[in-house]
What does this fold into?
Amino acid sequence: MSELFVVGISWRTAPVAVREKLAFREEEIAGALREMTEKLPVSEALLISTCNRVEVYGVGKGGDAATAVRAFLAEQRGIKPKDVGEALYDRRGSAAIRHVFSVASALDSLVVGEAQILGQLKAAYAVAGQAGTSGPLLSRALERAFGVAKRVRTETTIARGAANVSSVAVELAARVFGDLAGKSVLVVGAGKMSSLAARHLYANGAQRIVVTNRSPAKADALAEEVEGIAKPWADLEQLLVEADVVISSTGAREPILTKKLFKSVTKARRWRSMVVIDIAVPRDVEPEVGKLDGVYVFNIDDLDKVVQANLAERAKAAEHAGKIVEHEAGQFEHWMRSQGVVPTIRALRDRFAQIADVEVQKALDQLTRKEHTREQQRELLQRLVQLVVNKLLHQPTTVLRSADPMEATQLAAAVAELFALQPSDAESASDARREAVADIAQAEQSPERKAQA
It folds into this structure.
């Protein structure tokens, strides 16, 4: 039976300096997948390459497919296998199934519960489909993995609560305003954290983003990055008056957003609510600013506390999610094992259908050869059914009777289980069956019956 396997490297096993050695560009993946399935003992393959993992999900077709893929990855990237040998892992069979389900459910992510990996996995699945390397087993596994991920997100709190500082900034601003749609954002300074927070706010409905910085060039660059506009540093006070959300990260040694400045700002705003998010270290905002009416100040420690609380909640949810993954993986394994008997079931069905078709055709030939009374038709149909039954049972009864006693007992038990038989049922019906067989046998020998046929 075909076996699912995983070969890869991730943040768990290697630093970025090692992971990047195996990274694939998007335009390289389809070609690599086709080469794998054409040159290696691999019948199906998918490759996902992100900043945190590079993994191949595949189905072997004889030989050691996982080992072949390990060597293939190193060869494709032009490196020696020993350079990544210890960091590469492979999972096979049930372990591979659990790994795929865990990855899709974000249980194997750097940040547990993050949503990005599911989208990345779906994109990788689409590429494999376009490349023609995603067959029935891999498709079934991935589609089930997506279903498991949905169940985990629906039934647990693993994805609730922001898990990074930038997302928390959005969460806290939303708590104050209820809805960020149409709110104005002022970014003070051009730090990376400010840019990330501004992007999150924009994605959540904040529509006007203004950037101000002592260096106009940096302000212009950041404004372009977040689809905003740059304004002169000299206009800071007026910009604060116009802003609903302020994100500050300047790198200044002393606070630049002072209580004195905000007294003027809040008065000009008529004390309308505003959120000030201070991501700078040292802080850009004087602590006393938060005491002013209508001003909600959050510094990096406030944000980090929320992050840690959310991560702790996600860790608890991960326990429940892990049980879901375990249950679903068990169900999928059961389905995979059942596929091993499908050829036998199909052959059995074909054999039975063939016997029935032959006898039905014989009966039809007799019915169309001459007219029969209703009673004769009934007898002919009874005879047809009994002939089919006799032919279906001939081989198994011959095997049962010719087996040695111990084997016969085991075979009889298997037959009883397969057909849900009760010994009492068989005994009570045996006389009737024998009589029916005798009647049909006699009919077969009757000259009159032969003449009618």
In short: Strands lie at 4-10, 42-49, 53-60, 89-92, 184-188, 208-212, 229-231, 245-248, 274-278, 295-299. The first helix runs from residue 16 to 19. The longest strand covers residues 42-49.
